[in-house]
Amino acid sequence: FPVENIRNFSIIAHVDHGKSTLADRLLELTGTIDKTKNNKQVLDKLQVERERGITVKAQTASLFHNCEGKQYLLNLIDTPGHVDFSYEVSRSLSACQGVLLVVDANEGIQAQTVANFFLAFEAQLSVIPVINKIDLKNADPERVENQIEKVFDIPSDECIKISAKLGTNVESVLQAIIERIPPPKVHRKNPLRALVFDSTFDHYRGVIANVALFDGVVSKGDKIVSAHTQKIYEVNEVGVLNPNEQPTHKLYAGQVGYLIAGMKDVTEAQIGDTLHLHKQPVEPLPGFKSAKPMVFAGIYPVDQSEYNNLKSAIEKLTLNDSSVTVHRDSSLALGAGWRLGFLGLLHMEVFNQRLEQEYNASVILTTPTVPYKAVLSSSKLIKARRAVQKNMMFIDQNRVMLKYLFPLNEIVVDFYDSLKSLSSGYASFDYEDAGYQTAELVKMDILLNGNTVEELVTIVHKDKAHSIGKAMCERLKDCLPRQLFEIAIQASIGSKIIARETVKAYRKNVLAKCYGGDITRKMKLLKRQAEGKKKLRKIGNIEVPKDTFIKVLKTQ
Ligand code: GTP
C-alpha cells in the first residue's frame, strides 16, 4: 500500500462524548463492519467496557476508503478516554499523525478534552475538532466552536458538526481525515522499527502485540528483539485488524497491525517498547516508560478457601494488563492476600469488576492508598485538601478551568464524587503526576486497650490526623461488638493519644434463651459460639471479628 495513501489517526474525547459511537459509524461507512447489524461500540470488547460505557483497552481497526478514485488505508487507533489511562493514550498517539477531537455539543469542553488535546498537541499531531451530538435538544454547537477557538486556538470554521448517533455528516469526517492528516513519515528501506502501542493475551496464541511500523518491514519467520528486555523472538504471525485479526504476509512501514511472536505474557510486550530485527539494532522510539502504579489496595478472598482460585484469576487478568503490580501480602484479620498497584481508581474498580464478572471471585478490597517517600518535617501550604492553585482560565461565561496542585492521597478516595455532587455533576476532572512533594505526614496508630491494630495503621497529614483519628475511633466503636470488659479505642501519633472512644462491657449470654432444661440444645449453642470465635482475631484480649475489619477498612 503506498505510504501517501495511509492515514493513522485516533479519536480522543472526554468520557461519553461519543468516541466509540463515531468509531462505529466510521467502521460502517467504510464497509469494515456490516451496517445492518445493530453496531454498538464494536471496538469496546470487554464486558465492563460495555457496561460502564468506557474504553479500558485501546482497540484498533484498519479501514479502506475510496476517495476520488484513490484507495486509502485509514488506521483508526482507539484510545481509552479516562484519566487513569493517559499513558496508553499518549503511546497510541505516537503511532498517529492526527486526531479527531470529539466534543459534545451540549457539554462543551471538559477536563479530559483539555488533557487529551494537549497530549495530541505535544505530539505535534493535526487536530480535527468534531462537535458531536448536534441532534440533542440542548445542543449549542456555536458555543462549543467558540470554546474550541478560545482554549485551543483552532479557527472555528475547522470544526465539523456531526451526530454520530444518527450518522449525520460523518462523511465529512472521513474527508477531513484524508485532507488534513498527513501520511506517516516512514522509511521502508531502513531496518525494522516498530512501536508496541498495545498488547493483549490470548490463551492459545500468547501475546498479541499491536504495532505501528515506523521503518522497514516485518514478516513471518523474522527474528525480532524487544529493545526494552533485549529478548529475542521469532515472528509466528503478522496481520491487520479489521477490526478482528486478519493475517497478512508482511507488515510495511506506515502500517498498523498485530504481531505474534511467542511472548508469554504482556510484560514482554510493554506499551511503548520498540521492536527491531535481530542483529539490526535501531535507536528505540522515544518516550518509553514502564507503567507506574499510583494507587495501591489490599485484595483478599472473602473466604480463605477461595485463595487459590483468586490467585489464578489475578494471574490471568494481569497477563492482559501489565500495568497492575502484584505483591503477596497477608493480614492477621483478613488472611492471605495481595497488595496490588493500579494506575488510578477507575483502573482499580475495573480490575475488581473483571475479577467478579469474568472469574466469579468475591473479594475484599481495602481502602486505596498512594505511594509515599518518607520525608522529615517541612512546611507546605494547607487548605481543606491541601491544594495549591496554579492557574485559572474562563472557557466562556459559564465555565472556568482551574488548575491545582494536589497531594494524590487527597484525590484517591472521594474527591471525584464530592466534586460531582458539589457541582451537581457539571464539573469534570483530570490529573497528571507532578512528582513527589514534601509534606508533614505522620503515622497514625489505632489502639484497642493499648494494643496496636496493625491492619489500621495509616499515614495521614498532621493537620488532618485529629479528624481522621476521631472518625476511625467512632466507626470502630459502631462496628466492634461489646465484650465482657470495657474497650478503649484510641488513635495515637507516636505516644500521643489524639482521639478516644469507649465500648462498654457486655456479656452475650448465648444460653439466655434456654430456660435450664435441654442439655443438647445448650451444647449446640455453646459449640456455635466457639465456632464463631475461630473467625475472630485477638488483639490483646479483645476479640475482633473479621467482619469488623471489613466494615472499617471498606468505609474509610
Ligand atoms: P468512552 O468510551 O467512555 O470514552 O465513551 P465514548 O466517548 O466512546 O462515548 P460513547 O460513544 O460510548 O457514547 C456515549 C453516549 O452518548 C452513548 O449513550 C451514545 O449513544 C451517546 N451518543 C453518542 N453520539 C451521540 C450523538 O450524536 N447524539 C446523541 N444524542 N447521543 C450520542
Structure characterization notes:
With 556 residues, the protein is an alpha+beta fold. Strands 11-10-16-7-8-15-12-13 form an eight-stranded antiparallel β-sheet. Strand 18 and strand 19 form a beta hairpin. The longest helix has 16 residues, at 519-534.
Kindly report the spatial arrangement of strands forming the biggest sheet.
Answer: 11-10-16-7-8-15-12-13
Bound molecules: guanosine-5'-triphosphate
Number of strands: 29
- β content, as a range? 25-35%
Catalogue the unreliable spans. 53-58, 374-379
Structural class label: alpha+beta
The termini sit apart by 57 Å
Relative helix content: 25-40%
Global morphology: globular
Number of helices: 13
Biggest sheet architecture? 8 strands, antiparallel
Radius of gyration: 28 Å
pLDDT averaged over residues: 79
InterPro entries: EF-4, EFG_III/V, EFG_V-like, EFTu-like_2, G_TR_CS, LepA_C_sf, LepA_CTD, LepA_IV
Organism: Aotus nancymaae (Ma's night monkey)
Pfam families: EFG_C (PF00679), GTP_EFTU (PF00009), GTP_EFTU_D2 (PF03144), LepA_C (PF06421)
GO molecular function, one term: GTP binding
Summarize this structure briefly.
The chain has 556 residues and is α+β, with helices and mostly antiparallel strands. Helices cover 25% and strands 31% of the residues. Guanosine-5'-triphosphate binds next to helix 1.
